[in-house]
Amino acid sequence: MPDAPKDFSRLCVHTITTRPWSIEEAVGRYSKAGIRGITVWRQALEGRDASAAGRMIRDSGLSVVSLCRGGFFPSPTAKGRDEAVGENKRCIDQAAALGAPLIVLVCGAVPGQALEESRKQIRDGIAAVLDHASAAGVRLAIEPLHPMYADSRSAVNTMRQAREMRSLLGSPWLGVAVDLYHVWWDEDLEQEIAACGRDGSLFAFHICDWKTPTTDLLNDRGLMGEGCIPVRKIRGWVEAAGFNGFNEVEIFSTSRWATDQGAYLSEIQKAYLNHS
Ligand code: ZN
Description:
- This protein is of the alpha/beta class.
- Helices cover about 45% and strands about 15% of the residues.
- The chain is built from ten helices and eight strands.
- The radius of gyration is 18 Å and the shape is globular.
- The chain starts with 10 loop residues before the first strand and ends with a helix.
- About 45% of the residues are buried.
- It binds zinc ion.
């Protein structure tokens, strides 16, 4: 088990975690609180110039850790799949303008379409954008999603599926994002994290907690320490695998968004030190 984090030098917060704040307010508040990393959700950039937003972030002393999110490759029609490739290329261009070195991929699924077919379409979709990503200097990370989302959000549901897809595509620009909410239950998690470490494909680490009961399948994530995920233990596995990047707090929570975000940010920092 690793020691508790000593400071906030490796703490990154996703803009969606404090969704009521504009990106300008989030950057100001994170920076003032001593947080050093930010992952930007694309909706936070709406109506803004990505290069200017990137400059504003760097001027505040924060690092852009990644852009969320690309993906959603599968579609029942060739036109839909082409549009997804186009949208992912635009996302890559936006990441490059922002100065984000990484895009997290929520790979997609189509209700009623066989998962194997969706996985094939995901492989084809990623293959179609990899050259664009490497030319832009932006890495892509496949984020396996909890199987409860296999119907409509992602046909990639385990670390092994993500890692095997990555090996098949064989690009140093493609890796895996470990999001505890999605993979904490996986009996192979420790070995799979280690295998990603050996491949050099462990690109991102997202933390939060799993609440009991969970009242909403999407927007009821918990703060570290509020649920049953052994966050610190798994961080130990991730670090043993050679990962030394940011610990990214990514929490969708309708109940938290309804509260004072300044007080919430302090709670996040306390939970980070005590339970991560
Ligand atoms: Zn995530």
